[in-house]
Amino acid sequence: MSVAELVAGLRESRGFRHKTDIAGVVSSLAQRLPGGAGALGQAVALGDDCAALADGDGYLLFAIEGMVSDFVQAMPWFAGYSSVMVNVSDIYAMGGRPLAVVDALWSDGIEAAHEVLAGMAAASLAYGVPIVGGHTNARSDRAQLAVSIVGRAKALLSSFNARPGDRLLMAVDLRGRFEEPYPFWNASVGADAARLRGDLALLPHLAESGLCDAAKDISMAGALGTALMLLECSKVGARIDLDALPQPPGVPLARWITAFPSFGYLLAVREERVARVLAQFEARALACAEIGTIDASRKVVVHSGDDAAVLWDFSGEPFIVPADQ
Predict the structure, then answer these.
(1) What pLDDT does 155 receive?
(2) Which fold has domain 49-153?
(3) What is the average per-residue pLDDT within 291-315?
């Protein structure tokens, strides 16, 4: 498969299509607010992993994730587990530490909710984040789940801080497996809880030590879709080397770049700090590699050797940020 064919497939993927809907939602919200989206009082603009509110002693972080209904229906336990796990990841991706989660659960009867709740409880115990309440409707005609989280950060990692000249790093836990037939790379369920928490603690350490100030967790859009979100928010471009991506053995590249890993982050790091950041992940047996260089082009080019293609050109087409923002 050529790089151009790979790009064409990505642009039509479910993960990319879900993310491109965000621009329309943000634009609609901004039109209905006096002063636009900038009047929301956040420390960072819309488009980051969490809302961040400066509170005089760092930042209060808020995030929410909704699980797609077919996933909840087909894999209720893992959907429940994932709903907590991905929210926890959002908090750490901003350089924060999670405090608590609440859920909103719809099911056709109480029995149908038990597996979802069991998965949520397992993730709560694994990550040490309590479930402190929520909303339940056990008289719904379909299964649906959304979970919200609150956390706190002393220093922020933000999608808006990448600069031309930064190196783009990908950090991921390769000690996992796919939850078939979904693109979820699961390196969390069954892993030692202390190790999971220690791995995540690297992110606030990087923020607070000044080694990094720009990051994003790899989401349903995969590594390259997540790179687009990070780069667009920072109004930059990049050249990304597909051959440099940390990758599990035996997994085709076309599948891996659409994977949603339980532990996966992209970081924009000043060149002189790259070696120190790589060492932090390597010390915990987490794969981390430099996969590209950030530039001022507003275009994202991906390549494998001499085979290259433009993944996205922000100057002509928004990804998640409306053209008027």
Answers:
(1) 97
(2) 60s Ribosomal Protein L30; Chain: A; (3.30.1330)
(3) 97
